[in-house]
Amino acid sequence: MEPVRLPDFELESVEASVRRLMEQSAEQARQLDSLATAPPPPFPAFGIPGLGGMPSQPPPPEPRPILELEGEEYENELDALTDWVDGHLMDTYGAEITTATPWCEQWQEHADVVAWLHALWMAYQQHKEPEAGLSGPFVWHRDFLTHAMAAVRAPGGPLSACMTDPDRPAHRLLPGPKPSARSTAVRSEEPAEADGATR
User: Fold this and answer.
1) CA distance 123 to 7
2) What is the Cα 147 distance to its own chain's centre?
3) Domain spans of the chain?
4) Which of 2, 24, 91, 153 is the most exposed place for a label (fewest CB within 10 A)?
C-alpha cells in the first residue's frame, strides 16, 4: 500500500487538534492533582446550588463515669452495665468464687465496684470498635480486664466481706474511712463562725 498524503492545510488541522487534546489532558491532570492534595470540601448542599444539606446530627453524648450520673440516667446506665456484667463478663471471666476471688450477687450496691466495672465496660466498647484495629481486643484484655478484675475481686478488696463460697451467698458493705481531721476541723468551726456573725 502506498502511504496516504495529506495536504498541508489538513496536516496543520490535525496537528492543532492533537495539540489541543494534549493541553486538555495536561489541564485535567493538574485538576486531579489539586483535588488529591486539597482537603475535602464541606458538602452541606452536596455541591448542588440551591439545595439545603443534610440536617445536622447532634454529636453523640460524651461518655461520663457512672458515678457522675443521677436519677433515671444512672439507673438506665446501671441496667445496661448489669446486662453486660451478668451476661458477658462473669460468664466468660468470672472464675471460681473463693476467699482469693470473692464476688457479690449484689455488686450494684458497692459504689467502687460499680465504678470499676463501668470503666471496664466503657474500655471494652472502645476496644471492640474497628478503629481500635485488630489488636484492640488484646489491648483490652492486657491493659483493662486483668487489672480491673484483680482490683474488684482481690482478697482484701471491696467484696472481701461478701460471698467467698458459691453455696453461701453473702453481702456486706464495709464502712469506709471517716473524714480527715482537717475536714472535721473545718466543719466544727463553721457553726462558731456563724454564731459570731450573728452577734
Assistant:
1) 78
2) 19
3) 69-190
4) 2
